[in-house]
Structures are given as C-alpha cells and as structure tokens.
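Q: Structure tokens for this one, please.
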Amino acid sequence: MKNAVITIARQYGSGGKTIAAMLAKDLGINCYGRGILKMASEESGINERLFGMSDEKLKHSVLMKLLKRPYEGDLIPPESSGFVSDDNLFNYQAKVIKELAESESCVIVGRCADYVLRDFPNVISVFIHADREFCLEQAMERNSMSLKEMQRFIEKTDKYRGDFYKYYTGHEWSDARNYDLCLNSGKLGFKKCVEEIKAYMKVRFED
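A: Here is the predicted structure, written as tokens:
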C-alpha cells in the first residue's frame, strides 16, 4: 500500500495526542492536529480564528446539539451566506484531511477523521480512553487548575467532542464499533499503546 493513515480519537487526559505524536515519530511520518485548522484556513481563505473557535465543539443551541448533520463532502461556495458557517468550516477541514490521506502516510488527531476517511482502505481508526482517575491525574500534570475545576473541564471537553462527533457523523463518539482499535492507555501505558497500533498495522497491511 502506498501510504497508511492512522486516526486517533481520544478522551481528554488519556494521552491520545501524546500517543499520536509518539507513533508518528516511530513511523517517521507527520502527525496532524490543530495544524489542520491553519491548512483549512489557507485552503478556503477563511480566517484561521474562526476555525479555532469551532474546533471540535459546537456553538449551536441546545436544540442544534440534538440534531445531526452527517458530513457528505460538499463545500459551500464563497458567494453563499453559509460560506463561513461552522458546517462549512468542518467541510474544509474534512477536505484537508482527505487530501492528506491521499498524499502521504500520517497520523491525524481528532476532528472526526475516522468518519471523514471511512471509505478509504488505507486508514486505521483508533480510540484512546482511560478511567476517570487516570485522565484526571494526567490532566492535572499539564494544567494549573484545582481538582474540581479539572474534573469539570474534562467532562466539558469530552462532552464538546462527543456532541461534535454526533452532529457531524450521526454516531456516538465513544462507541467501539466506530473504530478498528480501542485502547486503554491507563492500563497499557503510552508506549504499549503505540506498539499495539503498530502491531495491528502490520497485520492489516501485511502485503
């Protein structure tokens, strides 16, 4: 296979972003996360700040969060009033994600990449999770918050990610059926998670 793409969805504090970076370094390939926002901004001409404001969260009302608008791939043209809507910001991120998957081996963090690339044969989707205590401990090491503030932040961030995923895919973010691999980083540790992904790649892409 010409290239292989690994998508990483992750609970906050599970170390998914760290695991993604470690995997990319081991494989000698690029790891894309928030950098996709800049690339989508350059592709569309839309201010990068707008992409940042809608990054993996919905700004819609409670009613909108109950709805679903699964991504279909269509871009809204510049002359349309919806050109800078959240939906079109997502469309441009998805366009960049598809272009990356077609052009190089890479690791892509978040942004519903597993769903966007669901029809690509060269993609492995991974969900990194851990128990509440582990995620809290990891997050506390990287943030200056009280224990209660951090607990609320983790819950809010994971809810943002879950709502975002549900809206653009129609599926539940934490449903194991959406992914090729679900790994508990609290039990395996980061290094072993990387090794598990590499082992799966070897079996999946053995040709």
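A few notes: The longest strand covers residues 123-129. The chain has a mean pLDDT of 90.
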